[in-house]
Amino acid sequence: MSIPAMGTHRLFSVPYHDIDVLGHLNHAAYFVYMETLRCDYYLRLLGSSDPKELDIILAEVTCRYFAPVFYGEELLGEVAPARPIGRTSFTLLYRFRRKQDGVVTARGRTVIVCYDYARATKREIPPDRRSRLEADAIDPAAEGW
């Protein structure tokens, strides 16, 4: 069965320092991979490559684990926004698959809030970004949420 691609994607090679005492990818490493995917996706929305331009903050992070990953294996990480898009926040969904066999090893979810750091308060998602998020949005149920 072929799994359709989600939004932005990146290949992650599992380094030794991400391996735990059980010999597989430590659960916490997925949060770093999700951060990389999140920034890749959102900076593309901004039309920038400068992380200082990020105007978002995390409200929630979740990860579900399905299969082990071992040193030297490669993971395809993918991210896409979920429907619906809120007024000040949106959800990003993540999927990780082993490159060699396509097995889904984990799924992640983050709730992102647009944030005005100068005023230390949330703010509405700008209209141009909202329309791009909506165009990229996928059904969470289709991704196991």
**Morphology:** globular
**SSE series:** EHEEEEEH
Counting DSSP H or I runs of 4 or more residues, the number of helices is 2
Distance between the termini: 19 Å
Major sheet, described briefly?
A: 6 strands, antiparallel
What is the beta-strand fraction? 25-35%
Q: How many structural units, i.e. domains? A: 1
Overall CATH class: Alpha Beta
Please state the average pLDDT score: 94
Q: Low-confidence stretches at least 5 residues in length (pLDDT < 50)?
A: none
- Tell me which CATH architecture applies here: Roll
Structural class: alpha+beta
Query: Would you tell me which CATH topology applies?
Result: Thiol Ester Dehydrase, Chain A
Number of strands: 6
Calculate Rg over CA atoms.
16 Å
Short overview:
With 145 residues, the protein is α+β, with helices and mostly antiparallel strands. The protein contains 2 helices and 6 strands. It is 19% helix and 34% strand.
Q: How would you describe this structure to a colleague?
A:
With 145 residues, this protein is α+β, with helices and mostly antiparallel strands. It has a single domain (8-140), classed as Hotdog Thioesterase (Thiol Ester Dehydrase, Chain A). The chain is built from 2 helices and 6 strands. Strands 1, 2, 3, 4, 5 and 6 form a 6-stranded antiparallel β-sheet that branches. β4 (89-98) and β5 form a beta hairpin. The radius of gyration is 16 Å and the shape is globular. The model has no long low-confidence stretch (mean pLDDT 94).
